[in-house]
Amino acid sequence: MADIALKPECPVGDGMSTVCNPYTGDVVGSVNTVDASAIDSIVARARKGRRSAQAMSRASRAAVLEGAARLLEQRAEFFALLIVNEAGKTITQARKETARAVNTLVLSAAEARRNSGEVVPFDAFPGSENRTGWFTREPLGIIAAITPFNDPLNLVAHKLGPAIAGGNSVILKPSELTPLSAFHLVEMLIEAGLPEEVVTVVNGNAELGAAIVTAREVRMVSFTGGFATGEAIARSAGLKKLAMDLGGNAAVVVMEDADLGTAVESCVSGAFWAAGQNCIGTQRILIAREVYEDFRDAFVARTKQLRVGDPTDERTEVGPMITAAAARTARAKVDTAIANGATLLCGNQPDGSLYAPTVLEGVPADCSIWQEEAFAPVVCLQPFDSFDDALQHANEVDFSLHAGIFTGSLDRALSAAQLLEASGVMINDSSDYRLDAMPFGGFKHGSMGREGVRFAYEEMTQPKVVCINQKDGVR
C-alpha cells in the first residue's frame, strides 16, 4: 500500500505514523500526522469547506455521493483488501463492509434529494387562517466526526454521507490504527466531484481530538467509540450538538420454544464476527433452563469448529484482534471472571493478536465481563427460570444497544420488544443485525442521538421555518 499524502491545502504535520497489519505485523502504509497546534488551520479549512458545501445544490451533493458509490463498487476488492490489511477483518467480512458502505453512500444521495422539509399547516390553528409556510432543513455548519477502528470504511461513510447530503463540511479524525480506508474514501469523494475543502481529514492523537471537539466553530461532534472518551467529549465540547454511539452489552434471550439450530448458528455468528470487536456483538446469552444444556453443548461445539487465523484466507472465520495488547486484555478479563467462579467452556488462548473464541458460563453478575462490553470474542452463557427472570438479567447492565430474542411465540416476542431496554430488538435473530437505513444507536448510557442515514441526516441539519402572513388572503 502506498503512503497517504495529504492535499496541499490540508494542515501538514512534521511526523508520519505507520499503519501495521494486525495479523502479520507488516507495515501497510503511513499517514502524515498533525498535532493540536494545527487546530486553527484545520478549522480555517473547514470554514472554507462549509461555504463550498452550502453552495452546492441538492442535485450536486447527490451526484457526488452516487458517483462515489459507483467508484467504491468498482474498487470493492481494493477496499476489502485494505480493510483486511489495516483492521484484520477476514476477507469475507471486509467485502461485506465494503458492500454496506456502497449502500450507505447511495442512501445518503437519496436523502440529499428527499429530506428537504415540510409544509406547516399554520391555518389549522384559529387566528392563523391567513398564514401559510413551510420549514426547510439547513446544514449545521462544521461537523467533527471521530471514528473507531472496527469498521474503518462503513462507519466513516455513515458520518460523511449524511453530513455531505445535508450541506455540511466535516473535520474527520479516523482511528490512528486504521486511517487508510478513511483517507482513500475521501480521495474518492473528491474524484466524484466533492470540493476538496469540504472534508478535512486529519490523523493525530487524543490531544488533536480534544482540540477539534472544543473548537467553537464546530457545531456538532459525531463520535463512535468508548464510554470514557464519550464522557470526556461531553464534558469539554461546550455548546454544540453531540451524537454518540458508545457501544452496548444487551443480551440475547433464547426461549424454550426457540428453533435451537437457528439460535445457535445466529449467536455464534453474532458473537465472533470481526473477532468480537463489534458494538452489537452477542456477548451475553440467556437461555431457558429447559433447553440450556442442549443449547450450551451445541454452541460450544460450533464455536470449536470456527477456523481462526489468516484473514486473507477465505476459509477463515475469525481473524485477529486489532492488536496483541487487545488480545491480552481480553484474556485478563476472562481470567478474572474464572478466578471469581466462572467456568471456561472453550477458548481463552491468545496467540499474538489472535484470540481463540471463548465461551464462559456461571459468570458472576458483578464481573466486568458481564457488566461491560468486552469488545472481544467472548461469550457468557446463563440459564434462566422464567421470562421475567430473563428480562431482569437482560436489563441489569448500564450499556445497551441491540438485544435479541429467539422464540416461536408472537406474544412473547412482542412483549420482549416492549420490555427489553435496548434501542433495537431483533426477533429470531442475534443482536448482530443492522441495516444501514435503520435508526441505530445505544440505550441508557450507551449513546446520544442516532445514526442510520436518514436519522443522521436529521441530526446533522436544523429546521428553518418560513411563515407568510397573507393580509389579503381568503377569510
CATH fold field value of the largest domain: Aldehyde Dehydrogenase, Chain A, domain 1
- The CATH class assignment of the largest domain is Alpha Beta
Question: Architecture of the largest domain, CATH level 2?
Answer: 3-Layer(aba) Sandwich
The profile of the biggest β sheet is: 7 strands, mixed
What order do the strands of the largest sheet run in, or round the barrel if closed? Answer: 12-15-16-11-10-18-19
Task: Determine the structural class based on helices, strands and strand pairing.
Answer: alpha/beta
Q: Bin the strand percentage.
A: 15-25%
Helix content: 25-40%
Could you explain how this protein is built, in words?
The chain is an alpha/beta fold and 475 residues long. It folds into two domains: 15-246 and 446-465, Aldehyde Dehydrogenase, Chain A, domain 1, CATH 3.40.605.10; 250-427, 3-Layer(aba) Sandwich (Aldehyde Dehydrogenase, Chain A, domain 2). It contains 15 helices and 22 strands. It is globular. Mean pLDDT is 94; it is low at 5-10. Belongs to the aldehyde dehydrogenase family. Residues 18-466 form the Aldehyde dehydrogenase domain. This is Aldehyde dehydrogenase family protein. InterPro entries: Ald_DH/histidinol_DH (IPR016161), Ald_DH_C (IPR016163), Ald_DH_N (IPR016162), Aldehyde_DH_dom (IPR015590), ALDH-related_metabolic_enz (IPR051020).
